[in-house]
Predict the 3D structure of the following.
Amino acid sequence: MTTIISFEEGERNINWLDLTDALVAGHSLPKAEISDSFLYRGQDTLLQRQAWIDGLGIAVKSATVFPGNPKQDLPMVHGAVTLFDDAHGILSALIDFHLVTKWKTAGDSLLAARRLARPESSKILIVGAGTVGRNLHAAYSAAFPNASFTIWNRTQANAEKMAAEIEGLTVAVDLETAVGEADIITSATMSTEPTLRGDWLQPGQHVDLIGAYRPDMREIDDAGLKRARVFVDSFDTTLDHIGELKIPLASGAITRADVLADYYSLDAFTRTSDTEITLFKNGGGAHLDLMTSRYILDQWRPTTS
């Protein structure tokens, strides 16, 4: 019988810090083979992301995106992660798509923050009041339990709604001021024009960029990249694919050597001084879905034995 893990069941026995440890362990294995594929029917899309890691197994993350669904009171995105075992390719589990995406996305950024942000960071700014922003609050709260959180959103009403849902979360009205006061800035917007300005950054800050995923998207300007020590989760999924780095690399604003390391060189993810600015680009990738799915399954099994 195939194991099926729902969102609610999968969350019962997992936590953010253990997930980041699982991501570290996953990157100690041979480098993942990854690929993406797309099928289209008009505005509807089937996206599949595949990853194979020797020693961990295979994951296929499938998502259907139907933009017309909300008009019929249906979610736009549906999907599942199909997980196969490493030894024989046997189907191990079907795991809820939204569960894996939630924990993979925020956990990816949290791992970098645990390595690069100052441990005493006490003021965290979230830019973007969507679902990812809410997940980032949960993730960062686990690693920085004494921190205070501020939310900024282009539409202030959405920031106020998020603040009403999360105890202690305050709303920032002016983004420049909020950036200047933060120890950590974590941004999850889908902007095609930089929202964050390098001139606003202060010594010792850590910047976490999540939202941009297309070649025309970016959340920070060239000045911000030039002022920071830049890291990514994967060279393969960021440099030539996401505007955050693809655009400034093409223009010559930064060079390939300015992107210092990805997670396959985790020892390089270190802060060299309390005054330097560190910047992490979260690009995602099916290999991270595989690592997260395997962690979810491993934690789910003891609760069902």
